[in-house]
Amino acid sequence: MPVRLRITLLFTALGCLILCLVCTSAYYFSYTSRIHSIRARLTNRAITTARLLSQAEIFDKELIRRIDSSTTITLKDKTVQAYDYQNHRIYSYSDKPGDTLSISEQTLDDSRVNSPVYFAEGTKDAIAYHYTSPTTRIVIVVAANDVEGKKYLQYLTHVLFFSFLGGILMTFIGGYLFSKGLLRPVRKIADEVSEISAQNLATRIQTGTVQDEWYHLSTTMNELLNRLQESFDLQKRFIANASHELSTPLTSISSQLEIALQRERSASEYRNIIQSVYQDVQQMNRLTQTLLEFAKASGSAGGLEIAQVRMDEIVLQMPAEVSKFKKEYIVVVDFQNLPENEEQLIVFGNEALLFLALKNIVINACKYSQDHKARITLAYNQDAVEVTVTDKGKGIPEPEWQNIFQPFYRVQENTNEEGFGLGLSLSGRIIKLHKGTIQVQSQVDQGSSFIITLPTALSLKNNSTF
Q1: Which of 269, 296, 323 is the last residue of a domain?
Q2: pTM
Q3: What CATH number does the domain containing 48 carry?
Q4: What CA–CA distance (Å, rounded) separates 302 from 318?
């Protein structure tokens, strides 16, 4: 069912409910008002007749009948009957000849105890009223047909019925028009989104000026498009740079083999060519492994083997691991502000990836430091583990800080150094995958510091966010 029709039906159902409540209330209060009115008039008539009958020396029964006959305008088809304490009828009057009331002794007895007693006699409303005075004890029964009251209720019923039908019709039309206006921004957003493709991701949805739910939806969609465009741009750059990095050693290998096959060469020359090709193959192998690790770190935490990892143990492995990479690289470990509870140094994550991320940053620090030395500082700070890697290298200009974590990006001064420009990008993605942050602080010609912050396992358990 279309959303517009559902909104219209819901709007109509709500209007129908409100109209039902209003019409029912109007009819109920009108009905109770008629009952109160006819009962009040019957009671007044009973009291008047009883008082006249109690003064028999002044008003005889024929005179009382003439008085009762004069009230036919206010009470239609009236019947008045009076009974003494022995339930003998002592007076009777009826607007219509032969119209009498059949009153049971139980009704008369009830009226003497719970006067007045209201009841219905056919289409008439009736009252049994017990009147007492020092000289008289009688029960007056008055019945009459409330023609005007019932006619008014019938008229009101017709008015409410047609008002109800008209109200439902107007509610349906109003709901249909209201839903059209309500869904117009959604249709507009859908039309604008349908025109966006991979070729024109720069197009954005118009948000308007009123900050309502549609503004929030448009803003959210634009933020999504920004992330998609950034991902597409990153993918394009990554493919272009990866292709370039892979084509360079392939071109070198192809050229060397082509030259080697042009003529016969000595064993030493073939050995030199094979050695050069081997170095190019080794470079391609390192690049391929790095790209595979980069692709693995670009996934989500749901696809990783997550376990509790001791960050102090990973830090302590760095000196020996980095010296294997190059003997001249030196790593100094410094522990600061460590907690008494060792569990506060445990994080949730993949140990191999966290080890790789820290290793890349430390190797980078040693590579670009003048003394090939890096310092690792481990500290605990407000439900988080902080690992700071510091070097005394050339430093990174501040405008470059936001670019160094991009794949294949290298600072201009370091383009001659060995590497692919994937180390920091890979580390940044791994840290982000573990819900951590990595920041850089650097001064030109003084060195750089990379600050890694990871939430502890205890804090993640309390927040249930991993």
Answers
A1: 296
A2: 0.49
A3: 3.30.450.20
A4: 27
Amino acid letter for position 187: R
Task: Compute the distance between CA of residue 7 and CA of residue 402 in angstroms, rounded to an integer.
Answer: 48
Is 178 among the domain residues?
A: no
Q: How confident is the model at residue 301 (pLDDT cuts 50, 70, 90)?
A: low
Q: Categorize the per-residue pLDDT at 421 as very low, low, confident or very high, splitting at 50, 70 and 90.
A: low
Q: Using alpha carbons, select from 284, 454, 438, 283 the residue that is nearest to residue 361.
A: 438
Provide the residue range defining the domain that includes 34: 3-151
The rounded percent of the chain whose pLDDT value lies above 70 is: 83
DSSP annotation of 116: S
Q: What pairs with residue 346 in β-bridges?
A: 310
Residue 71 CA to residue 93 CA, distance in Å, equals 12
CATH code of the domain containing 364: 3.30.565.10
Pick the range with the lowest mean pLDDT from 161-170, 349-358, 369-378, 447-456: 349-358
Q: Is 126 helix (H, G, I), strand (E, B) or coil?
A: strand
In a domain, residue 266? The reply is yes
Paired tokens of 395: 């430093």
Q: In what helix (H) or strand (E) does residue 440 lie, and over which residues does it extend?
A: strand 437-443
Same domain, 278 and 323: no
Taking residues 222-247, report their average pLDDT. Answer: 70
- How many domains is the chain built from? 3
In this structure, the answer to whether residues 315 and 434 fall within a common structural domain is: yes
